[in-house]
Specification:
Blueprint: E1 16-24, E2 27-34, E3 40-46, H1 61-85
Antiparallel strand pairs: 1-2, 2-3
The structure holds zinc ion.
Residues 8, 10-11, 13, 34, 36-37, 39 line the site of zinc ion.
């Protein structure tokens, strides 16, 4: 049964089922269908690792924050690429 998941971008419904799931080394892409409005959307599940720098002791809190932001941005870019360009419906593999 569909468990609570990310809200549907169309109706904000919390029930959806997985149509397609693709595991990659650094993430899992899922194509989902809303149980309420049948809208289809993608989710990307990934680990975001923020490593402390070897010279972390010498970094200011601003530098640490910048490093973390860059790491998150890289993860988001990867996710967005999947959602926009790697849709299994448009481009079956
Ligand atoms: Zn919906």
């Amino acid at each position: 049964m569909a468990r609570s998941t990310l809200a549907c971008p169309n109706c904000q419904g919390r029930r959806s089922r997985t149509l397609n799931s693709r595991s990659q080394p650094d993430r899992v892409n899922r194509r989902r269908e809303c149980a309420d409005c049948s809208a289809r959307f993608s989710t990307v599940e990934m680990v975001v690792v923020v490593r402390g720098s070897r010279s972390g002791q010498n970094m200011t809190s601003e530098e640490v924050a910048l490093r973390q932001a860059k790491t998150k941005l890289a993860a988001l870019r990867s996710a967005l690429r999947y959602v926009l360009e790697d849709d299994p419906e448009e481009e079956p593999t």
